[in-house]
Design goal:
about 90 residues; alpha+beta; Glutaredoxin; 4 strands; about 35% helix
Length: about 90
């Protein structure tokens, strides 16, 4: 797993919804000062499997090394903000 407080975004280069969601997740994480890890599922299938990713985009809030919240698919900025804020102290 991931040993940090961060947001982990699973994507693939061929995924249209991933391309739409990426700038929103990146902007919200930067604004809130949260570390963002972007994981290509084609290049890192083991990590995707550890997180139980079955569809992409998939975004996880990780606190103290454990997932505390997640969503799959394209979401609104408000939904992204809610998830990212779960990493904050």
């Amino acid at each position: 797993m991931v040993d940090a407080n961060c947001v982990v975004k699973f994507y693939a280069n061929w995924c249209g919804p991933c391309k739409q969601l990426a700038p929103v997740v990146e902007a919200v994480a930067a604004e809130l000062g949260v570390k963002l890890l972007s994981v290509n599922v084609d290049e890192n299938p083991e990590l995707a499997q550890q997180f139980g990713v079955r569809s992409i985009p998939a975004v996880f809030a990780v606190k103290d090394g454990a997932p505390v919240a997640s969503f799959f698919g394209n979401k609104s900025e408000a939904d992204v903000r809610t998830l990212v804020s779960k990493v904050l102290p």
